[in-house]
Predict the structure.
Amino acid sequence: MPFDLAAAFREQAMYCDALDSPFTAAILRRAADDVDADGWVADLLARDDWTRADAAPLRWTGALHAAVLGGRAPALAALYPPQRSHWDADAVFAAATAAYAADPAWFAAFVTSPPQTNETRRAICLLPGFLAAAAGGGPLHCLEVGASAGLNTNWDRFAYRTERWSWGSTADAAPRIDSAWHGPAPAVATPIVVASRAACDRQPLDVRDPEARDRLRAYLWPDQPERLERFDRAVALAVRQGTRVERESADVWLARRLAGPLPEGVTIVYHSIAWQYFPADVAARARAAIEAAGAQATRSRRLAWVRFELDSVFPGDRGHDAGDDLADATRFGVDLLGWPGGERRHVARVDPHARWVDTSD
């Protein structure tokens, strides 16, 4: 069955509405109408092999926002939030049409790459898993796969603040991570010492490069200033810390990083909404590398796998069959697999943008 691009735009608009971005939802619906009419959006995204995982609608919105941020489309920028708090989707789409007509090659090049985001707020969903993994004592060795620009490799340097508990940095410049918290608080008294940290991505972005920084920022929705502020603070932190992400496929990188004896303490492999984008063979080999390392784990050299993903990405592990109605695109969770033993622990049920976290089972 051919991929329905217009339907994909309308589906993404529905998610944007649900995730409090009415501006992005409105322009996505306008673009869906253009696809139905075989307009320029259809021409820009003319491919026979799109899949849902390719996130074509987000590539398109990212291209528009990047053109705004990079000064390529001043007329469009004048109609975008935050310049306009009251916007007109038809006027925005008309300006986008003009921007595309002025430089179609740039837009075509931009949408060839998949969306990359570092949603720093997701770190608050991972934190309970990290603290649980650290409970056995010893230093932490953190390995993030699908890390994009590596902003969340600095998770222990963020300031976590909820109405019920707080943890982390007290520095004014630290990224502030909040969420509506339901259920038991994480084990915030657990001492944390991160002895090493590393990350990989097939197409990493270096936030020291203004163009790469704008590309990453472009995938955030322009009518959500709090996300943009967190991003800016996390970028500044990453630059101060000299954060680096290695350019390598997750399976190859993990096989290399996990070869040989594990270090003293606990090695934590983690990711957030990344595994679903791995090709099946890459995901299988990456999992095999983790499980092989887990088989060698001891009480003093432990391994933890902390995962923030759709249930449908790990259907058997999450207790649902692939295709189960409960394991659809609205059901996200965080879980922890720990070795020795390979025991799985439910950590939280979460919102995809971490607006809420529910740690009750």
